[in-house]
Specification:
Order of helices and strands: EEHH
Shape: elongated
Largest sheet: 2 strands, antiparallel
Number of helices: 2
Structural class: alpha+beta
Helix content: 55-70%
């Protein structure tokens, strides 16, 4: 790991192998977004459209 300072900002260089490992580790910690079924998505979008129309 190497540190570089450019325009008073500190950057860290990491080998590609370590970077891939860090990405994989971070991906495992993040939670996936909820996926709607087709019917649920339609009802949800209709609800949002009605809410938006009521505000106008």
């Amino acid at each position: 790991m190497t540190e570089i300072i450019i325009d008073k900002k500190k950057y860290v260089l990491v080998p590609a192998k370590d970077y891939s490992a860090l990405q994989k580790k971070a991906a495992l910690k993040s939670k996936a977004e909820k996926v709607f079924s087709l019917e649920d998505a339609r009802s949800f979008s209709k609800k949002l459209i009605r809410k938006w129309a009521a505000e106008k």
